Amino acid sequence: MHASPEASVDDHGLADGSLCAGAHKGGPLRLFFALRPDEGVRAQLAHWSRELHAVCGGRPTREENLHLTLAFLGNVEDARVAEVERAADEVAPRVLTLVLDRPGYWKHNRIAWAGASTVPAGLDAFVAELRSALARSYIGFDPKGFVSHVTLLRDAREPKAMPALAPIEWRLAGFALVQSVSSPGGSRYEIRKSWQGRA
Ligand code: 2AM
Predict the structure, then answer these.
(1) 3 CB contacts (<8 Å, ≥6 apart)?
(2) Predicted confidence band at 11 (pLDDT cuts at 50, 70, 90)?
(3) Residue nearest to atom 2 of ligand 1 (CA)
(4) Contact assessment for residue 186 and residue 8, using Cβ atoms and an 8 Å cutoff
(5) In this structure, is the dihedral angle defined by the CA atoms of residues 19, 23, 24 and 27, taken in order, positive or negative?
(6) φ, ψ for residue 157 (rounded to 5)?
(7) CA dihedral in degrees (47, 53, 67, 164; nearest 10)?
């Protein structure tokens, strides 16, 4: 079972509250681009999360918040959100399948995650295209390289061994611009706009 909801301090040590304190008052919005799983994939990720939680504890990502980050923008002024959306309009994602077959753990930030042993070249290319479009529009984002993963648990202990988990086939049909809104129970992720992929 999930132990407790995700708290409002993320794995990067940033308190959501401080970063988007003004989000409800016309201040900057905390934004990122992400892939959001459909219901079926979300349920399978939640299963992985429970299995991993049994071996390494930690704070599970709330099921409705599960996502794969493509580019993290951080604080963006309200007036620039339209530019962010226009930059994303320039990229054309292809529909492709990502197979999550590899649970992983990062010691440095105590995160347990779901990853893929093979990332389709099309996904890497799409992320590069999206980030170039943002850069061309002078929209800042975290420049750390893209590592395809879905964060399942934060503050987790290093597991002695990973549980055996059935691979998850995730058909990537589009992407979304997501706003992180801090709320008393933790961050809530709201989709501001989404884009469909081409088959
Ligand atoms: P994650 O992708 O490893 O889960 C919202 O904060 C999401 O953006 C989180 O899921 C987080 O990590 C991701 N993210 C990527 N870079 C970030 C950064 N520099 N600061 C905060 N969150 C970041």
Answers:
(1) 53, 57, 58, 59, 60
(2) very low
(3) 69
(4) yes
(5) positive
(6) -80, 155
(7) -50
The sign of the torsion formed by the CA atoms of 45, 100, 8, 64 equals: negative
Question: For residue 26, what pLDDT is reported?
Answer: 73
Residue 30's DSSP bridge partners are 75, 180
Dihedral sign (CA 105, 13, 153, 115):
negative
Going by alpha carbons, the residue nearest to atom 16 of ligand 1 is 72
pLDDT at residue 29 tops 60: yes
Ligand 1 pocket test: which of 6, 45, 59, 72 has the largest number of ligand atoms within 8 Å of its C-beta?
A: 72
Helix (H, G, I), strand (E, B) or coil at 116: coil
**Rounded Cα gap, residues 18 and 27, in angstroms:** 12
> pLDDT of 30-54, one tens digit each?
999 999 999 999 999 999 999 999 9
Q: Could you give the CA distance from residue 114 to residue 149 in angstroms, rounded to a whole number?
A: 6
What H or E segment, with its residue span, contains residue 141? none
Rounded to whole angstroms, how far apart are CA atoms 35 and 147?
13
**16-196: CATH homologous superfamily?**
Cyclic phosphodiesterase (3.90.1140.10)
Phi then psi dihedrals of residue 101, to 5 deg: -135, 10
Q: Which residues of 24-51 are buried (b: 16+ CB within 10 A; e: fewer)?
A: eeeebbbbbbbbbbeeebbebbbebbbb
